[in-house]
Amino acid sequence: MWQQLVDAGLDPKEARFYLEVLDLRRPTVAEAAERSRISRTNAYDITKRLVHRGLLSITEVGPTGKPAGRGRAVLTANDPGKLLDEWAERKEILDDLVPKLRAVRAKGTSQPRVRYLEGAAGIRNALFETLEWPSPLRGILSMKDLLTVPGQTAMNEYIAGRRERRLLLRVVRSPERDYEHGWPTSAAEYRESRYASPGYVFTMTMIIGANEVAVMSSRSENFAMMIESAEYARMQANLFEVLWSTSSTTPTRAGDQ
């Protein structure tokens, strides 16, 4: 859980401290600091930040009843669902901000941009970046290679992401690099599939957007490229349409002829 809290936006010390407050029954800052192995000075700063975010509350209790007794401040962990509220608020802000930032970025230069992304992480990042492109997408996919890198789990997430965004993908695949019954045409998954003629084998994947093209290699070369160029994207889209027009709706392998 600690790592998941860090992934959700808390720093490591905040995550440890918050988990201890959740586990303890109304601890003081000092008690939570001791359990989470954080200095008291840092613990008070962390408490202020988590209270500000709505994850913790401070309550004054006491006095103890002794002659010199005084009240004390104890911590209560609020509903962790606050993290979901934060995410929803942040997403709403970003949904409004990102298109504006892209517009500013587009005005900054008319020159095409090429980005090189290395390794399996680069391939995954390139693939998921296409989820932010407008519909429809055009794709030339090597299914076997995508199921190796970035892998089955990532592909399931990607398909779910397209479905959530209603992002249509028109795709041509090589029967030689395909799996039987894999990723057919599906209205529910916003996908139209066709298959290249036997002998045309694609070991790389290309996804073509309105102004950008993503190219992803197999594990053999292990890289991805993002090409931001409206002209290049239009040319690749035209070449795709030529390939689409000569492709079939059912896979045919060389041995089937």
Word description of this protein:
Residues 8-63 form the Transcription regulator TrmB N-terminal domain. This is Sugar-specific transcriptional regulator TrmB. Pfam families: TrmB. InterPro entries: TrmB-like, Tscrpt_reg_TrmB_N, WH-like_DNA-bd_sf. By secondary structure, the chain is an alpha+beta fold. It has two domains: 2-84, Winged helix-like DNA-binding domain superfamily/Winged helix DNA-binding domain (Arc Repressor Mutant, subunit A, Orthogonal Bundle), CATH 1.10.10; 112-256, Endonuclease, Chain A (2-Layer Sandwich), CATH 3.30.870. The protein contains eight helices and nine strands. Strands 3-9-8-7-4-5-6 form a seven-stranded mixed beta sheet, sandwiched between helices. Strand 8 (212-216) and strand 9 form a beta hairpin. The longest helix is centred in the middle third of the chain and has 27 residues, at 82-108. It starts with a helix and ends in an 11-residue tail after the last helix.
